[in-house]
Write a structure and sequence with these properties.
This protein has 167 residues and is mostly helical. It has a domain of 90 residues: Winged helix-like DNA-binding domain superfamily/Winged helix DNA-binding domain (Arc Repressor Mutant, subunit A). Strands 1-3-2 form a 3-stranded antiparallel β-sheet. Helix 1 crosses helix 5 and helix 3 packs across helix 4. The longest helix is centred in the N-terminal third of the chain and has 26 residues. The chain starts with 8 loop residues before the first helix and ends in a 20-residue tail after the last helix. This is MarR family transcriptional regulator. One of its GO terms (biological process) is response to stress. Pfam families: MarR_2. One of its GO terms (molecular function) is DNA-binding transcription factor activity.
């Protein structure tokens, strides 16, 4: 009978990652809720805001967020009803459409970002020295590129150097 090593550092890494992710989500939720945004709503509008022309093809948005096409459609439908996102037909492909951040969506995002960024700084990035943060972001990108290679699809060549959102 073999003996399993329950102290395997791979298990520790996964456990810490899960704990940090859950903790950050819990920390960020009150500010997002106050702005009437769920985590996926926030992820959607911030990805649109950081995209060229503040828009993404619906299929690219689905790939970036890890949602199914029907899942991203439901999110965009809800955000469209709230006036935060609009749909725009693709001139070159009748089958495709874009999700576009509206002015109201940009304003909602601008209203939540200062407090959200303060939370991010207080319990995440601000805890790391500049060199630690740079190395950490590099490590996250390396892992992201393996487990979520579509996370930057639809972005211009200059955009991938920006940090990706959790997703």
């Amino acid at each position: 009978m073999s003996v399993m090593n329950f102290d395997d550092p791979r298990l520790t890494a996964m456990g810490l990652l899960a704990e940090v992710s859950a903790g950050l989500s819990a920390r960020f939720q009150p500010v997002l809720s106050e702005a009437r945004l769920s985590e996926i709503d926030f992820e959607t509008v911030i990805r649109l805001a950081r995209s060229p022309g503040r828009r993404l093809r619906m299929s690219d948005l689905a790939a970036q967020t890890g949602l199914s096409t029907s899942g991203v459609t439901r999110v965009v439908d809800r955000l469209e009803r709230e006036g935060l996102v609009a749909r725009q037909a693709c001139a070159s492909d009748r089958r495709a459409s874009y999700a576009v951040l509206t002015e109201a969506g940009r304003e909602r995002l601008e209203s939540v970002l200062p407090r959200h960024l303060q939370d991010v700084d207080d319990c995440f990035t601000g805890l790391l020295e500049a060199a630690e943060l740079e190395a950490f972001l590099g490590s996250l990108r390396k892992i992201r590129d393996v487990v979520r290679p579509c996370a930057t699809i639809g972005a211009e060549a200059s955009v991938p150097s920006q940090p990706s959102l959790p997703g």
